[in-house]
TrEMBL record:
Compartments reported by the entry: Early endosome membrane
Pfam families: PX
Principal subcellular localisation of the protein: membrane
SUPFAM superfamilies found in the cross-reference section: PX domain
Record's keyword annotation contains Membrane: yes
Domain PX residues, every copy: 1-99
Domain of life the protein comes from: Eukaryota
Membrane disposition: Peripheral membrane protein
Name of the protein described by the UniProt record: PX domain-containing protein
Keyword Disulfide bond: no
Keyword list, A-Z: Endosome, Lipid-binding, Membrane, Protein transport, Transport
Length: 173
């Protein structure tokens, strides 16, 4: 379970509404390998735990992995080049995007909207309000709600207004 918060540690204000998503070891490994390939110097001092075929529920292994994953995510949070790398964008959005696509294909627009809202919540905490990644998920939300045949008319209008405000607010980064 990955929890992303925007805490203000200097004033000890903690984010009351964190984004929670599930990621597997393989997702973290793909993230690490993708970033290491594109920015080897930035990841030089970061060690990554190996894949284990057995003993995945050992408390020591879990603790070691959590620490390594947290170090990787903290590095990404502090370095915009890593955050904007294709591997990071894929890590932060692809699981939910693929699930939403599947649900839309099945005509389950309300469930797809919920998944995309979770994705927005996560991406909005990782990226700036007007980043392409955040605006893209807002567009997906509007398209999903708009495809519902009117069933999600209220949410589609609210999300469309937010997307428009964000887009009109300034430069897209």
């Amino acid at each position: 379970m990955l929890q992303v918060r925007q805490d203000q540690t200097d004033s000890r204000i903690f984010d009351p509404d964190p984004a929670n998503v599930e990621r597997r070891y393989t997702h973290f490994l793909d993230l690490y390998n993708g970033l290491k390939k594109e920015y080897p110097a930035l990841l030089n001092n970061l060690s990554f735990p190996r894949k284990m075929l057995m003993g995945n529920f050992d408390p020591n292994l879990i603790s070691t992995r959590c620490s390594a994953f947290e170090s990787l995510l903290n590095l990404i949070a502090s370095e915009s080049r890593l955050r904007n790398a294709p591997a990071a964008i894929a890590f932060f959005q692809d699981v939910e995007l693929n699930e939403a696509k599947k649900l839309i294909d099945e005509g389950k627009f309300d469930q797809a909207l919920s998944v995309l809202e979770t994705s927005f919540k996560l991406l909005n905490k990782v990226y700036t309000d007007r980043s392409r990644v955040v605006l893209s998920v807002l567009c997906r939300i509007v398209a999903c709600a708009g495809s519902s045949g009117g069933a999600l008319a209220g949410p589609v209008e609210r999300w469309a207004q937010l997307a428009l405000r964000r887009y009109e607010a300034g430069d897209i980064g």
